[in-house]
Amino acid sequence: MKRDLMDIVCCPLDKHDLDLDVESEEDGEVVSGTLTCADCGETYPIEDGIPNLLPPDMREETPA
Amino acid sequence: MEARVRTPGRMSMSGDDLAGRRGVETDVYDPAEDSRLLADVACEAVSESDLVADVGTGSGYVAATVTAETSARVLGTDLNPHACRRARDAGVEAVRANLVAPFRADAFDVVLFNPPYLPADAAAARDDWMEVALTGGETGREVVEAFLDDVGRVLSPDGYVLLLVSTLTGVDEVVDYAGERGFSTVALADESFPFETLSVLKLVR
After folding, report:
1. From which residue to which does any coiled coil extend (chain B) (predicted)?
2. Cross-chain Cβ contact A54/B96 below 8 Å
């Protein structure tokens, strides 16, 4: 994900700001890392360049 | 009732370079006539300076097409992790999200949505990602309604929605529901098929 996506996304649960913690970066894009809600503390992983901003109870790889 | 456009696995983009990227055929909805209609309308409507969200981007076809034609920044979001990966492979800036839940207020100038719209048919229930991509609950409108409940929050003051609907979903019902959420609606394009007519609606406040 591009760093300036931070200006567009928010915590899906309470809509507060997220803090970005970068683990690896490539060609100016965050490849892996963590987004953490500044208010509720929920964490959201960034894997293979894709931020997973689903609430924890919706994160399974299979539907339903 | 058969839905011609939304027959899973239907090969409608033969010759297109996206066809070459197929390979997870039961996991991600492939672009079909509905995708093409929405992309065509969006390419006409979107300006280069717009920030656009393509909700339920699937293969990323609509987002990639609009980016290529307009140079606008288009985010592709999907609930399905396979779709997110495939959209990213197609060059789309992908975010795994439930509709527009993780986006800030007033974030987008344009929100595109080609929703799961078929009424669920218990006999055809698949319980896989393709069913999630195709069906909108018993009425066909459950996902569209959840989207309409929240999308006003993420639209800029002059922002608008381009929503693909089918007569299988009930266009009047969608227009009425959007009206209850403060949107007025105009149809920008229609295309008829043997079992349904597809429309792209523009929703403004």
Report:
1. none
2. yes
Tell me the three state secondary structure of residue B204: strand
Query: What local confidence, expressed as pLDDT, does residue A64 receive?
Result: 57
**A9, A12, A48 member nearest B85 (Cβ):** A48
pLDDT digits (tens, 9 = 90+) for B2-33: 444 665 444 333 334 444 444 445 689 888 89
Which residues in chain B are contacts of A61 at CB distance < 8 A?
A: 81
Residue in A5, A8, A51 closest to B96 by CB: A51
Which chain B residues contact residue A55 at CB under 8 A? 98, 101
Map out the domains of chain A as residue ranges.
3-55
Task: Confirm whether pTM is higher than 0.80.
Answer: yes
Nearest to B114 by CA among B87, B90, B88, B91: B87
Domains in chain B, please, with CATH?
30-204 (3.40.50.150)
Which residues in B lie closer than 8 A to residue A10 (C-beta atoms)? Answer: 102-104
Average pLDDT over residues A4-9: 98
The whole-angstrom separation of Cα B178 and Cα B55 is: 17
How many CB atoms are closer than 10 A to CB B124?
A: 11
